[in-house]
Amino acid sequence: MKARVFSGVQPTGNLHIGNYLGALKSWTKVQYDYECIFGIVDLHAVTLYQNPEDLKAKIAEVAALFIACGIDPRHSTVMVQSSVAAHTELGWMLTCVTPVGWLERMTQYKAKSEAQETVGAGILQYPVLMAADILLYQAALVPVGDDQTQHLELTRDIAQRFNSLYGETFVMPATRTPAVGARVMGLDEPDKKMSKSATGTGHAIGMLDPPDVARRKIMRATTDSNPAVDFETMGPGVANLLAIFQAFGDWDDDRIKGHFSGMRYGDLKKQVAEMVLESLAPIQQRYREITADPAYLRQLLASGADRVRPIADSTVRLVKERMGLHQ
Ligand code: TYM
C-alpha cells in the first residue's frame, strides 16, 4: 500500500504563484508515488470572517485550480474539509491534549492576532485543526511552503503527546518543502512573503491574472540599486525574481547563474515575465474548460468526500477507543 499525503489550501483571496510554487506544483510531483488527499480547508478560512457567497465561490474556484494545475483526479482525491465531519471531531480531541502555550508561540498566530481588535478563538485553535487534517489520514508526508513548517512541527508534537498518553495511534508526518520556491516574496515588498491577503496591487501574481496584468506586475517589481544581476551582491527583490524563474522553469543553479549573470534588470524582468506567462497559460486554459461545467466540480467534490470519509471515520473510532470515549 502506498504511503499517504495530505495537504491543503484555504479558499480565501486569490491563489497566487507562491501557493503554486510552494505547494501545488510539488503535489503534482508526488501524486503518483503516494495516495494523495488534497483539501480545500474552508473551516480554516472562517477563522476570519468570510462573506458566505464569496466563500462558496472560492471553494469552487480553488477546486478547479487544483485540477487545472495538474492534480490528476484519477489518482488524487480533492475534498472540502467541512464535508468530512471527522476533521472537527478529531480537532476537538487533539485540542484536549494541546497546551495553550504551544499555540501562543506560533508565529502565524502572533501575526494574525496582532492585526485584529478581538482575536477569535479559532485563530489560536487553527494549527490544532490543521494537525487533525493530517493525522486523520495518517499522512506520512505533507508538502507545503516554508511558512507551514512550524505548524508541521506542532502537528508532530501533538501526535507524540497523544501517542505517549494513550498509546501508539498516529503516524508521524514528515514535512516536504521545495528546494526553490518554498518562500516566494511579494514583488513590491521583497522582504515580505507573497500573501493572498496583501492589498498592494503589485504584490502577488494571481494564478488567474490576465497576461498583461501579470507582466506589468513583474516589470514593476522592486529590485535594488545595482544595474544588472550580480549573484554576490543582489538584494532580495532580484533573488526573488530569479527564484520564480528557476522554480517555474526547473533550471539548476549553474544554468541560472550562467544565463543571468550580468543581465540588466529590464531584460531579467522580461524573461521572468515570459516564463511566468508561458507557465500560467495552459493552467488558465484548463481552468476555463473545467469551470465551463459546474456539474463536474460538484461531482468531483462529492466523490472526493465519499472516498476519504471511511478513512477519517476509522481514525476517529480508533481515537475514541484509545481515549475511552463512547462509540
Ligand atoms: P495557505 O492557504 O496559506 O497556503 C497554501 C499553501 O501555499 C503555501 N504558500 C507559499 N509557498 C511559497 N511562497 C509563498 N509566498 C506562499 N504562501 C503560501 C503554503 O505554505 C501552503 O502550503 N494552514 C495552511 C492550510 C492547511 C494545511 C492543512 C496545509 C490547513 N490544513 C494540512 C497542509 C496540511 C494554509 O493556511 O495554507
User: Which value, in Å, is the CA radius of gyration?
Assistant: 21 Å
- CATH-defined topology of the largest domain: Rossmann fold
* Molecules bound to protein: tryptophanyl-5'AMP
What does the average pLDDT come to? 97
Q: In whole angstroms, how far apart are the ends?
A: 28 Å
Weakly predicted, low-confidence segments: none
Number of helices: 13
Overall form? globular
Count of spatially separate domains:
2
Architecture per CATH nomenclature, i.e. the level-2 architecture of the largest domain? 3-Layer(aba) Sandwich
Q: In sequence order, what are the helices and strands, one letter per element?
A: EHEHHEHHHHEHEHHHHH
Outline of this structure?
By secondary structure, this protein is mainly alpha-helical. 55% of the residues lie in helices and 7% in strands. The protein has two domains: 4-177 and 293-323, HUPs (Rossmann fold, 3-Layer(aba) Sandwich); 211-288, Tyrosyl-Transfer RNA Synthetase (Orthogonal Bundle).
Q: Describe it for me?
A:
The chain is mainly alpha-helical and 327 residues long. The chain folds into 2 domains: 4-177 and 293-323, HUPs (Rossmann fold), CATH 3.40.50; 211-288, Tyrosyl-Transfer RNA Synthetase. Helices cover 55% and strands 7% of the residues. It has helices spanning 17-30, 42-45, 52-68, 86-95, 100-104, 107-114, 121-135, 149-166, 211-219, 236-249, 253-260, 265-291, 294-323; strands at 4-9, 35-40, 77-80, 141-143, 174-176. The strands form 2 sheets. The chain has a 3-stranded parallel β-sheet. A two-stranded parallel sheet has the order 4-5. α4 (86-95) packs across α7 (121-135). The longest helix is centred in the C-terminal third of the chain and has 30 residues, at 294-323. The radius of gyration is 21 Å and the shape is globular. The mean pLDDT is 97. The structure holds tryptophanyl-5'AMP. The site of tryptophanyl-5'AMP has 25 residues, from β1, α1 and α7.
